[in-house]
Write a structure and sequence with these properties.
mainly alpha
């Protein structure tokens, strides 16, 4: 009898992990597809490729603030239903995109899409915590993070293939089909949540309690620094990947729409860094890990100035390694510091993270327009200098009293 119960529980756990991982892949394909489609978007909507990069910024902007809304909603209406509703609405948005003929309309549609994309990142870990034990939870988190990386890489590479071989309408039809298939699979796999939701009460007291939870984290100086660090790092990293595509499509490289998206394979060094970060923090301490992360971001950025395909790829491999190391460390530290309202603490971190992505595109655009890739490197180094100062402040004796030795 006990073995039967264990088998049922095991199947339920596998379905939950599989369902949320597939949902995550759908989310991140939709988020980052446009980053690989810059040539097709520019040609279809008669805008410059650099102007097309702003599509990722507007999506990240609405996604950032929607994370806060979903963090509150998750405790009021449960986990499964909001995730599935947002996924099906995402399919509708992909279908609507087939008929878009104006760049302004596409910007507005991407803003709506950003709001829907926040559901899974905001609720996934809470869903796991409701359903899984400690040992399985760690494995589930690792698989889920890997799915995030796979979705991000797949979305960008798929965008490159679409730019090379498809028209806009055909590309959006394929995207809608992929999203629908993934959503159907997630629907079949995701088990009903065992989370006991609170009553959906929308009054002054409930609003005050939610705001108090957010404020308690924003009032913590250490958390504020970590939020700024995560946002600053992502501000540089994700937008460098947009502008390096434009650089590789220009002379002397003149790479094709799909060929330039291969640069996103450099994210794999970051996947490895995320996987190993806990052990490195435990063995070397948070100060060394953070310092090494910032140095890697700066070194990788500067390495691209040698301006060959090989050195650009090496530079991005180094930068991706440093970025994901600092991101995974920051994310873990937020969870450790926040004793209450942890979902809100994580949502605030992700909000800052995606706001950085939204700000980074417009910030680097004038550097690109004035000086090309060298200008992007200059703008990045200015931002990374601020990042280094924030890390130094965080790790100062007055701030860094809590080492991350709790991560095993």
């Amino acid at each position: 009898m006990s073995s039967t119960v264990e088998q049922v529980n095991s199947n339920r756990e596998l379905k939950l992990i599989g369902g949320l991982s597939i949902a995550s892949i759908v989310i991140f394909i939709n988020l980052y597809l446009v980053q690989g489609m810059l040539p097709l978007i520019a040609a279809t909507f008669s805008v410059s490729k650099s102007h097309a990069t702003l599509l990722l910024s507007v999506t990240s902007f609405t996604m950032a603030f929607s994370l806060l809304l979903f963090a509150v909603m998750s405790d009021r209406v449960g986990r499964k239903r909001p995730i599935l509703i947002s996924l099906y609405l995402l399919v509708v948005v992909d279908i609507v995109a087939i008929f878009i003929a104006d760049f302004g309309q596409l910007v507005a549609l991407r803003m709506v899409q950003g709001a829907l994309l926040a559901s899974v990142p905001a609720m996934a870990m809470a869903y796991f915590k409701d359903e899984l034990g400690g040992h399985v939870l760690l494995k589930a988190g690792a698989v889920y993070i890997a799915a995030n990386s796979i979705g991000g890489i797949a979305g960008r590479l798929l965008g490159g293939v679409m730019s090379e071989y498809l028209q806009w309408q055909e590309a959006m039809m394929l995207l809608a089909f992929i999203s629908l298939m993934g959503t159907i699979l997630a629907t079949r796999l995701l088990p009903d949540s065992q989370f006991i939701k609170t009553k959906l009460i929308l009054n002054k007291e409930a609003l005050h309690a939610d705001l108090k939870g957010f404020y308690s984290h924003l009032a913590n100086p250490k958390l504020r620094l970590i939020y700024l660090i995560g946002g600053s790092a992502f501000m540089v990293m994700v937008n460098q990947f947009s502008y390096i595509q434009l650089h590789l499509m220009d002379t002397p490289f003149v790479q094709g729409p799909f060929e330039v998206t291969l640069i996103f394979l450099c994210y794999l060094s970051g996947t490895y860094a995320s996987y190993r970060s806990a052990k490195w923090i435990k063995n070397s301490g948070v100060k060394r890990v953070y310092t090494a992360s910032v140095c890697a971001l700066m070194l990788g950025t500067m390495f691209t100035l040698f301006d060959t395909v090989a050195t650009i790829y090496i530079g991005f491999l180094i930068s991706s390694f440093g970025f994901f190391l600092i991101h995974s460390s920051s994310n873990a530290w937020v969870a450790f510091i926040a004793k209450q309202h942890r979902a809100k603490a994580t949502a605030l971190y992700l909000c800052s993270y995606y706001l950085g992505a939204a700000i980074g595109g417009p910030y680097l655009l004038p550097f690109w327009q004035q000086w090309g890739w060298q200008g992007v490197v200059l703008g990045s180094m200015l931002c990374l200098s601020v990042l280094a100062a924030l890390v130094n402040k965080l790790l100062s004796p007055t701030e860094a009293k809590s080492p991350l030795s709790f991560i095993v």
